[in-house]
Amino acid sequence: MNRDLLRSFVEIADCRNLTAAVARLSRTQSAISVQRRKLEAELGTTLFYRRPKGMILTDAGDRLLPAARSVLAELNRARALFTMQMTGQLRIGIPDDFDEAMLEQALSLFSRRHPGVDLIATSGCTSGFDRAIRDGTLAIAVCSSSEGEMENVFLEEPTVWVAGKDAQLPDNGPISLAILDRACWWRDLPLQALKSASIPYTVSFKSGSFSNLKAAIRSGFAIGILPASSLCSEMRRLGLSEGFPSLPISHRMLRINPNAAPQLTSAMSRAIREACRQRAEAAQQLGMLTASPPSEVSL
Known about the structure:
The strands form 4 sheets. The chain has a 6-stranded mixed beta sheet with strand order 4-3-5-12-6-13, with helices on both faces. A hairpin with a 2-residue loop joins strand 1 and strand 2 (about 55). By secondary structure, the chain is of the alpha/beta class. Helices cover about 45% and strands about 25% of the residues. It has helices at about 5-15, 20-25, 30-45, 60-85, 100-115, 130-135, 185-195, 210-220, 260-285, and strands spanning about 50, 55, 90-95, 115-125, 140-145, 155, 160-165, 175-180, 200-205, 225, 235-240, 250-255, 295.
């Protein structure tokens, strides 16, 4: 006995009419008749009498009806454990240097699966996200660092020197550098790396916007550092062969407010991780040469 057979039986019993049961079940009359006969064959008994005014339960049908209702109710309760719509509000912080395709996919996955949740996303510098998590302004946040706390890291990707596709590097003299004008490791890392390698530079472009930083690099006005996934066809990667020092891996970490609704933060965490996997798979399938997909870290 499966759910469909029992449901057809209960609907016929309630309607006492095959045509009305067919309308409720959105099935053909022949399909419902087949299900009724199959259930009767499995039980080795007759469940209905056919009368001019409709379908009447036999004594066996009367005995089965309460049991069938109970089984269907339990099955519905079990299904509701996984289909019950979540509600509430979730505030998430996303770095503005986060992979755009991955961000779009993560937000899309979450919104489609949980339309009853009021999702409020904040994008910007992660330097303030830890405090926002502590004071409850954010429930969950993706943070970035060049020195990740490994137990919290869920994603890793290379940090690279980048120039415009047709940009000319100076043979002599300082290089033109573009940096983020805000207190975070994205600002400090290129300065420290160039000083350690004794490479002269001039800070030619500053901006608090990561998008503006990428625009300055694409234009060929200055070079800078970016997550490898941010590269596009209008950029080229620089490395040891051009005299630039190696850079540390960029780590992505999830910060979660312990007082936030766990079902909501867990659902968002799953969406972000799934988006990460899909991004990597898509990059491999397309054979992307200009971007290095991030790699997921198993926790």
